[in-house]
Each structure stands twice: as C-alpha cells, then as structure tokens.
Amino acid sequence: MDFELTDIQKQIQQTFRDFTLRKVKPVAAKLDEEKIFPTKLFKEAGELGFFGMRYPESAGGSGLDITSYCLAVMELARGSLSLAVSCTMQSLMGTFFLFRFGDEEIRKKYFIEALKGKKIGAICMTEPNAGSDLFGIKSVAKITEDGFVLNGQKTWVTSAPVADFFTVLARTSPDEHQPVTQTGLSIFFVPANLEGVMIGKTIEKLGVCGSLTSEVSFSDVKLPKNYLLGEIGSGTKCLMEILAEIRIMTAALAIGVATAAFEDAVEYSKTREQFGKTIGTFQAIKMKLADMAVQLETAKHYVFYAAWLSEKNLPRQKESMIAKLYASECANSICDQATRVFASYGFAMEYPVQRYFRDARFTLIGGGTSEILKNNIGKELGL
Any idea what DSSP says for residue 369? Predict the structure, then answer.
C-alpha cells in the first residue's frame, strides 16, 4: 500500500482547497446564519467536476478514484459542512441509481444535468418510524397496468426544498400489512413536479443549517414503468452496492470539519496571550492539541485505508464502518476540545469554532449511528 498521493490526487486536493479558501470560507457563516442553500457554490462545484468524480467518462464523469473524491470532500467540509453535505448527497446517493439503472430519457434529462449542477437530486429513505430500521418502511408503490402508484411520507430528506427529482425507497411486497423482507423494497425515480409530490415542513437543525432538510410526501403519485430503478424487490441489494462508499464519504466529511476546528485551535493558541504568554506554551493546552492531532491523523489514515480497499474492490464493509465510526467520534471530540481552547470565545458566535462544534453532530448520524455501527461491527466479528 502506497501512502503517497499521486500527482492527480494532489491536484484534486489543491483545486478544491483553493476553491474553499477563495469562495466557501468567506460566506460559510452567512450560509449557516441565514440558512441559505448554497446555490451559487453548488453550481460552481459542478463546474469543477465534483458531482461526476465517481462516474466513468462514458457517463459524463471523470472516473476518478475514491481517494481523490475523499480529498475533495475533506476540503469542501473544511470550509462549510453545509455545502459539503449538499454536494456529497448529490454526487453519490442523489445520482447513483439514475446512473446505475436509469434509461436514456432519465440519464439525458436528469442525470447528465445533475452532474453539471444544473439539476438537484435527493434520496428519500428515512420515514417518521423508519430510520435505522429500513425494513420498517411504510411507503408503498402498488403495481398497476401502466406502472406504479406511490404513497407514503419521508423525512430528513436533504435538499428536498430545492430538489428537481427524488430517488425513493418504497415497499413493493404483495401484502403491505406484513413485515417487509430483504426482497420487499424497490427504488423509484420521482420527478419533483409530478402531481401528488408535496414538500413538507423544513426541519430546523442544530447544525449544517445551509443544507436544507425537510419532509416529502407522496399521494397517489403515478409512475411509469421505466421509473422503477432496478428490478422489483432489489432495493436492499442496490443500497448495499454503495453503503460502504456512503460511510467512507461520511468519514471524509468528519475529517474535513475536524481539520478546520483543529487548525483554528492551533492558530488561536499561538496568538492568544494570558499571564504574559501565548496559551499554546501552557502544558494543558499543548497536550490538548497533541491529543487532537493524534485523533485526526489516525482517523484520516484509516479513512484512506478504507478508500484503498474500495478502489481494489476488496472486502470493506467492516472497515468502512470502522472508518465512519472512528472519524465521526473523533471529529466531535476534536471540535469539542477546540471550543475549550477558545474558552469563552468558543461559546461566541463571532468565531467559526462554534459552527464546527454544531455541524460535527451530523457525522454521528449520516451513514449509520455509532450504536448501529458498533452492533454491525460485532456481527462482522461473528458475535
């Protein structure tokens, strides 16, 4: 395993670092405070090729490796986790199933435009009573002569208020009153402008406030047969195709926001003076920053290891869970410790460290909660 980045990977990292420093950081606080979807930055990320990084050139992407993708994600998250979350949802879950199963009409009208950032896609999985338990999904797509009729309610849908289309997970098992099984879920493409699609209330969140999240409901939404993505009952299997990558991506988001918090804390410790010295010279602060550095570097290297396994198409389910679990927990610890370095100013809205602290909580949830991941890692160990 080579730990040195390739020239292309370094170029990707620098491109998104420059973009973040010039365009993202100056407006990150405004996006958070005013709860604005970053439309302009979102489109510019598309122009930089972010949304197509993980898709082959034949499909309109650039066919880059997952390490390059993680480097870009980390840089975006250093500037604004709101922007990074919106972009990663589009680049993976929002478009993957269109690429994988969409026909020529769907690909040309929606997928290609989404890669350019000109259309926005969102994935609808979670329901009021079905989060970690996907088999608890109640949304139903009934089979008709012409296609399907979709009914149900989804929640925690990232980018829903601005989305042009949705990828919806719904049950297609024969008896909607029976518990759903591995083969009882299917995936559907649903344009946002179809009759019966309704955007519900926007969810007020603790962090990532510039990434808009809301409920979406479907009332007798008629879908033609070609809007079924994949085969009937293949929803769970299809999700498993990208589950590891979702977790690696979420870990990269965690690394990005943790890096921002750590760097700000180090810089502040070099300039803030107390008792005639900069606080970085005090052993208590020095040791705190050292602990943060150890956590950050360890998490970063394990994320790259999981990405390397993915690139080699080697077994990675357990490793992707470890990467996501460890990186997200470390990010929250690092952001917490950073606010302590800032002391009272870490409690002030004047400094971005409070935003990092709030935003980092997102990484504990996306891609599976820590508790679910620990349970699943235990299963991987044969327990």
Answer: -
Classified by CATH at the fold level, domain 236-380 comes out as: Butyryl-CoA Dehydrogenase, subunit A; domain 3 (1.20.140)
Q: What is the pLDDT of residue 173?
A: 74
**Cα distance between residue 332 and residue 327, in whole Å:** 9
CA distance between the termini of the chain: 30
Give the model's pLDDT for residue 180.
65
Cα–Cα distance for residue pair 249/56, rounded to 1 Å: 18
User: Which residues of the chain are under the pLDDT cut of 70?
Assistant: 174-182
- Rounded Cα distance between 78 and 76, Å, is 5
Contact 170, 236 (CB under 8 A): no
**CA 115 from centroid of its chain's CA atoms:** 16
| CATH number at 7-92 | 1.10.540.10
Q: What is the pTM of this model?
A: 0.96
- Residue 201, helix vs strand vs coil: strand
Which residues partner with 148 through β-bridges? 143, 223
Nearest to 270 by CA among 282, 258, 252, 260: 282
Smallest Cα–Cα separation from 140: which of 200, 102, 184, 84? 184
Q: What is the pLDDT of residues 30-78, one digit of tens each?
A: 999 999 999 999 999 999 999 999 999 999 999 999 999 999 999 999 9
Please check whether residue 187 is in contact with residue 147, taking contact to mean a CB–CB distance below 8 angstroms: no
